[in-house]
Amino acid sequence: MFTFLKRFGVGAMLVMSVVAVRPSYGQNFIPGVSPFFQIRPGLNVSQAAFNLALRGQALQNFPPYAFPGGFGSPWGGAGALGGAGALGGYGGGYSPYLYSYYDPSPGNTLRGAAELTKAQGEFIIDQQRTLTMREQRRGEKLKNDRAYFDLKNYERERTPTPEELRLRGLKEQVMRSRNNPPVTEITSAKALNDLLQDIHNVQSRGDTAQLRTFQAPVSEDVLKHINITKGQGNIALLKNEGRLTWPVALSGIDFKEDRERINSLVRDAVSQAGFNGQVDSGTITQLISDTDRVRGRLRRTGTDLPPSLYIDANAFLNNLDDAIRALQQPDVGSHFTGKYALKAKTIPELVNYMNANGLHFAPAVPGDESAYLALQKALAAYDRAVNPNVEKELEAKR
Fold first, then answer.
1. DSSP string, 214-235
2. Under a CB-based contact definition with an 8 Å cutoff, are residues 292 and 268 in contact?
């Protein structure tokens, strides 16, 4: 009896000490388990595992009849361990192996502590496995982030800048204007201006020795049919002292009154430009009004015309609009005083004159096509001679 009371008292004191002790983060640290993970506020993993082990050791000192329902074999039991079958018993009803006797042998006494220790070890293993999986996922994320970073760097290094794209586009335009461009790009003066700009770029680099070694001749008859402009518009239709050559579709009796009034206004505008350097605004306004009236009448009666005649008439009116626009420019007088006359004998002289006066080639009018084709060939040959590396540079960047 005394031994039982002694055991009971020791066990009660141990249980009270477990309950009374407030765990801290630094107590009973278990390697491999985060000391900051908490089962509940104020109770971390290491402290909870220690509490369970200590409680199991305390309960082993009690005989089975000290608890309601008994405390019997470790293979089954009730009461303090959670009811019959909680540790692997029959799960209900009477069993001769439950509550039959109390085995005070050392092996049976330590079996409960072994089970608690095993549970604690499995818990620690599960925690460590979770930490390992988390670190693996973090490592995989870092690898993916590095791969994405390397991919963006590769794309940035391989992607040309806007300036590189612009320069490449200019070189491609030069190559197109050199190598048999469409006739429409020649007569619209686009190909001529591309070649003019490329030659000017070579000159701006200061390679004058190379420019002097190739003197491409150009015919004076060709330059007479080449139209130039400094701002907007095209004075080409008014070169013959303002005498207009009307197309067949606009030469009929229906357009006679408007045609005669426009002829008179155009000759008056050319005279004003050559004498005063400017054209009266009233003359410009009347020319615009009369041209619009002729265009409207052409649209109403054009359905009875063959397509070719209608296209010629519409092109003539477009060129007349360009001429009226050129008459409004502040330098219009230079076109009729000879200041802008092209008198160069070679392509280098022509390029120097155009660049010195800020001039560009203007579109051709009917009758100028052959001159534009000849000038394009001369400019292309000269451009190949002074700037032969354009093709190599484009091939190197492809």
1. ---B--HHHHHT--EESSSS-G
2. no
